[in-house]
Design brief:
single chain; 440 residues; alpha/beta; Four Helix Bundle (Hemerythrin (Met), subunit A); Rossmann fold; 434 Repressor (Amino-terminal Domain); 3 domains; eight-stranded mixed beta sheet; two-stranded antiparallel sheet; 20 helices; binds guanosine-5'-diphosphate; binds magnesium ion; RNA-binding; Signal recognition particle protein
Length: 440
C-alpha cells in the first residue's frame, strides 16, 4: 500500500492550494487503507468527507507535495477523531465505585477485568473486589477466581444457582460492608448481540449504577464494530471502550469505527494474554496502525518541519535582499507568531544568534507583535510598500482603524526603519554573509 500511495503522491506535484482532484486521488488510496484496517464502511465515508472538507483549498508549501499534505490532514483528522488525550479510568465517585465490563463472548472481558484490577491495586493503591456475573459459561466464575489469585485481587466467593443480578447485589453489598474501593463486575457475553443479553446488561447496570461501563471489544472486530458499539451504547450506555488483542495483526480500525459512532473514548488497549499486557490508548500510535504506513508519522513530521523551514527561508531571502517594507514586516510578524516567537524563528536560521540581541534591542518582543500587526493591517497596500506616504492625517486614520495612538504608529515606524537598516547590513553586506547563506 505504501508504494501505491507514494506513487499517487509522486504524481501530485502541482503547487499551490490542494484542489479537489488532488484530494480525491489521494483519498482513494486512503479509503482503501482504512477499509483494509477494518474501519466500517459508513465511517470510512464520513471520515473521508471530513478530510475532503478540510483539505480542499488548503495551502501546499513548496517543499511538500500535495499528497504529503493530504496525509498530514488525514493523520490530523484521525488523531482528532480518536481523541487527542488519553482518558484514564474514572474513579471519582463515592466508594465502592463499580466498574462494569460488557462485550461479546471471547472479547477479553474476564482477562481485562483482572488486568484493570491489578493496575488499580498496584498503581492507584485501591482495594478491589472482582465478581463474575457469568452464569452461562461453565467455569467462567472459576476462571476469574484463578486470575484473582494470580494478581492477588479478591474475588467474590462463588455461590451456585444465582442470577447475574443476585451476584451483582451480593458483590455491591460485600464491597460496602468490607470497605472495598472498587467493585469490578465481569459480565457474561454472547457470540452475538441479542435482546436477552441487552436486557440482562441493562438490568445489572441500573442496579449497580456503575461509574464506568466499559465495552471490551476485540481489535479484529471488523464491520460489526459499529453495530456492536452502537447497540451497547444505546441499550446499556457506555463510558468507554477497551480494545483487546492489539498484539495481534488487527489494524485497529474498530477503534475508529466505535469511537466515531459512540463518541466514547478508547480508554485502554490489551496487548497480550499476560496480566501486565494493558496499555494506555495512544491516538497517534493507532492512527499509524490504521493507515498501515509505518513511516506515516515521520512523513507528517517532515512535512510539518518543512512548512516552517520553508517560511523561514522565504523570510530570510527577503531579508537578504535588503528588501524590507511594512508588508514584509507584517508577514514576518505573522510567521514569527506561528513558529513560537522571535527566538523560535531565529533558531531556524543558521548563524544568526547575534541578530537575536539586536532585535531584542529593537524592542520587538512577542507581546507587541500582535499590536504591531494590527497597525499594519489598518494601512493601505501602498502605505505598506512605501512608509514615506505616512503623514499626519494618514497616521490619524490608521490609529483610529487599529485602536492605537498616533504615537504607537510612530514607534512602529521607527522600529521598522531600525530593522530595515539591520537587514541591509546583514544581507547586502558581504557576499555569502550570514543572511545570504540562510537564504540559499
Ligand atoms: P471473555 O469471554 O470476554 O471474558 O474473554 P476472556 O477474557 O475469557 O478472553 C478470551 C481469550 O482471549 C483468552 O484466552 C485471553 O487470554 C485472550 N485475550 C484477552 N485479551 C487479550 C489480548 O489483549 N491479547 C491476546 N493475545 N489475547 C487476549
Ligand atoms: Mg468471561
Amino acid at each position: 500500500l505504501s508504494d501505491k500511495l507514494s506513487a499517487v503522491f509522486d504524481k501530485l506535484t502541482r503547487r499551490g492550494a490542494l484542489n479537489e482532484a488532488d484530494v480525491n486521488e489521494a483519498l482513494r488510496e486512503i479509503r482503501r487503507a482504512l477499509l483494509e484496517a477494518d474501519v466500517a464502511l459508513d465511517v470510512v465515508r464520513s471520515f473521508s468527507d471530513k478530510v475532503r472538507d478540510r483539505a480542499v483549498g488548503a495551502g501546499v508549501i513548496k517543499s511538500v507535495s500535495p499528497g504529503q499534505m493530504v496525509v498530514k490532514i488525514v493523520n490530523d483528522v484521525l488523531i482528532e477523531t480518536l481523541g487527542e488525550t488519553a482518558q484514564p479510568i474514572d474513579l471519582a465517585a463515592r466508594p465502592p465505585v463499580a466498574i462494569m465490563m460488557v462485550g461479546l463472548q471471547g472479547a477479553g472481558k474476564t482477562t481485562t477485568t483482572a488486568k484493570i484490577a491489578k493496575r488499580l491495586k498496584e498503581r492507584h493503591d485501591k482495594r478491589v473486589l472482582m465478581a463474575s456475573l457469568d452464569v452461562k459459561r461453565p467455569a467462567a466464575q472459576e476462571q476469574l477466581a484463578v486470575l484473582g489469585r494470580q494478581v492477588e485481587v479478591d474475588t467474590l466467593p462463588i455461590e451456585p444457582n444465582q442470577t447475574p443480578l443476585q451476584i451483582a447485589r451480593r458483590a455491591m453489598e460485600a464491597a460496602r460492608l468490607q470497605g472495598y474501593d472498587v467493585v469490578m463486575l465481569d459480565t457474561a457475553g454472547r457470540t452475538h448481540i441479542d435482546e436477552p443479553l441487552m436486557q440482562e446488561m441493562a438490568d445489572i447496570k441500573s442496579y449497580a449504577n456503575p461509574h464506568e461501563t466499559l465495552l471490551v471489544a476485540d481489535s479484529l472486530t471488523g464491520q460489526d464494530a459499529v453495530n456492536l458499539a452502537k447497540n451497547f451504547d444505546e441499550r446499556v450506555g457506555l463510558s468507554g471502550i477497551v480494545l483487546t488483542r492489539m498484539d495481534g495483526d488487527g489494524r485497529g480500525g474498530a477503534a475508529l469505527s466505535m469511537r466515531y459512532v459512540t463518541g466514547k473514548p478508547i480508554k485502554l488497549i490489551g496487548t497480550g494474554e499476560k496480566m501486565d499486557a494493558l496499555d494506555e490508548f495512544s491516538p497517534s500510535r493507532i492512527a499509524n496502525r490504521i493507515l498501515g504506513m509505518g513511516d506515516i508519522v515521520a512523513l507528517v513530521e517532515k512535512a510539518a518541519a518543512a512548512i516552517d523551514a520553508e517560511e523561514a527561508r522565504k523570510t530570510a531571502a527577503r531579508m537578504a535582499k535588503g528588501k524590507f517594507d511594512l508588508q514584509d514586516l507584517c508577514d514576518q510578524l505573522a510567521q514569527v507568531e506561528k513558529i513560537g516567537g522571535l527566538g523560535g524563528m531565529m533558531d531556524l536560521l543558521p548563524g544568526v544568534g547575534k541578530m537575536k540581541d539586536q532585535l531584542a534591542k529593537a524592542n520587538l518582543d512577542d507581546k507587541v507583535i500582535k499590536r504591531q500587526r494590527a497597525i499594519i493591517l489598518s494601512m493601505t497596500p501602498q502605505e505598506r510598500r512605501n512608509p514615506d506616504l505616512l503623514k499626519a492625517s494618514r497616521k490619524k486614520r490608521i490609529a483610529a482603524g487599529s485602536g492605537m495612538k498616533v504615537e504607537d504608529i510612530n514607534k512602529l515606524l521607527k522600529q521598522h526603519r531600525q530593522m530595515a537598516d539591520l537587514m541591509k547590513s546583514f544581507g547586502a553586506g558581504k557576499r555569502g554573509g550570514l543572511m545570504g547563506k540562510a537564504a540559499q
